[in-house]
Amino acid sequence: MGESMRVLVLGGDGYLGWPTAMYLSARGHDVTVVDNYLKRELEVQVGAKPLVVPPRLLERVGIWQEMTGLFIRAVENDAKNFWGLAGLMEAAEPDAVVHFAEQPSGPYSMMGREEAQFTLTNNLNTTMALIWAVLLRRPDCHIIKLGTMGEYGTPGVLIPEGWMRLPGLPIGKKFLFPREAGSLYHTCKILETDLLHFYCRHQDLRVTDLMQGPVYGISTNETELHSDLRTSFHYDDVFGTVLNRFITQAVVGVPLTVYGGGGQTRGYLNLRDSLRCIELAMESPPDQGEMRIMNQFTEIFSVNQLAELVVQAWSDRTGQRAEIQHIKNPRREDEEHFYEAEHTALEALGLEPTSLDGDVLDGMLAEVTKAGDQVNTSWILPRVTWRDGWGRPELS
Predict the structure, then answer these.
(1) Does 20 participate in catalysis according to the annotation?
(2) Contact 345/221 with Cβ under 8 angstroms?
(3) 8-58 pLDDT, tens per residue?
(4) Reduced to 3 DSSP states, what percent helix, strand and coil does the chain have, rounded to the nearest 5?
């Protein structure tokens, strides 16, 4: 465990934000969480909610203190409000800011013009407010942005950790690797990376951009302390990630819906590993003026491979076989492609990866089974197509 730091977690009510806050608090850090409950509002808008709806932050931090004796400050505020964020920066004096405070869904960003415009303005304005709050109130602060491997797309070549060097150029000269996102949300992530890179070069910001793959998991050591400390596990078509969705489908006995051919391949990581990656980035910050990019995933799977793993785990647990159903792909993407990406930087800092094995899958199946009667199966099939916005795709 490293030296205690003051940490500001933006988006601290979310699937990743709340477990991050507890994890860092449990390791002796002074943690403040900020959220305006935007995602809860969007859940109502699209007709979806987590498997179990957790209490709001003020109640959760009270339970955390009761269970552990540790204090997390909770601020219910909009992080894109520059003056509010600047005041908080001045009061909390953070050594690091972990930036989760965004509309986080690719499908939501593709619903139509209004959702696209909202995603663009909300996410970029939040990042810009953070940049200037740091510059004007806490210029030495380390910004840790949760980026996404989705920025890179599927280029068909080995994906480096953010940077590329061209032959014939001076030693040390490097450029951001070309990126080609598959949704408007992921395109906004590219723009945020470019914004942060600009201010690193021109105003000496200190930034780590964690290009994170899809995260799976439902529990951590901290969430297991009390039922109301659980995080917001989504299984729906808008906010749910693919493995979490497959796990839920197996539990409630509906076919695992694979989009198209199922050869879409990405890098994945466990929720617990995601928290550890943030801690490692905090403990080893980049230099002032440096934009450090690290690819944050531990294993590579195709969608078909994930579906088969869940089928096997469910069979091992119950003796029953879950069905797999291929449906028309609502997205515009290559369904068969080469995918390989470097991901050594975090392991070099000390990450010990969690493997997606039978025990991990069985644990997830057990947790979802406890709340299986809460699942609304009408939220699982995709309601958003990349070409037409809302509209349920036909079965192929």
Answers:
(1) no
(2) no
(3) 999 999 999 999 999 999 999 999 999 999 999 999 999 999 999 999 999
(4) 40, 20, 40
- As given in the structure block, the two tokens for residue 11 are 């988006």
Q: What pLDDT, in 10s, does the model give residues 322-367?
A: 999 999 999 999 999 999 999 999 999 999 999 999 999 999 999 9
- Residue type for 53, please? V
- Helix 358-370 / helix 303-318 crossing angle, nearest 10 deg: 70
pTM beyond cutoff 0.90: yes
Eight-class DSSP state of 224: G
Q: Identify whether 39 is part of a domain.
A: yes
197, two tokens:
């890179």
Query: What's the average model confidence in pLDDT over 232-255?
Result: 96
Overall number of domains in the chain: 1
Find, among 69, 6, 78, the residue nearest to 39 by Cα.
78
Of 20, 32, 126, 148, the catalytic one is: 148
Task: Classify residue 214: in a domain, yes or no.
Answer: yes
Alpha-carbon Rg of the chain, whole angstroms?
20
State yes or no: is 145 an active-site residue: no
Catalytic site residue from 185, 235, 259, 268: 185
The SS3 assignment for 186 reads helix
Residue 265 lies in a domain: yes
pLDDT given at position 1: 58
| Catalytic residue flag (residue 354) | no
The model's pLDDT over 189-205, given as tens digits with 9 standing for 90+, comes to 999 999 999 999 999 99
Distance in angstroms (rounded) separating the CA atoms of residues 278 and 16: 11
- Whose CA is closest to 51, among 374, 310, 363? 374
CATH number, residue 60: 3.40.50.720
Q: What is the mean pLDDT of residues 381-387?
A: 90
* Nearest-10 crossing angle of helices 242-252, 358-370: 60
Asked whether residue 395 is assigned to any structural domain, the reply reads no
- Summary mean pLDDT of the chain: 95
DSSP output for 314-341:
HHHHHS----EEEE---S-S-SS----B
> Which phi and psi angles does 269 have, rounded to 5°?
-150, 155
Q: Is the pLDDT assigned to residue 396 strictly greater than 50?
A: no
Residue 260 domain boundaries: 6-390
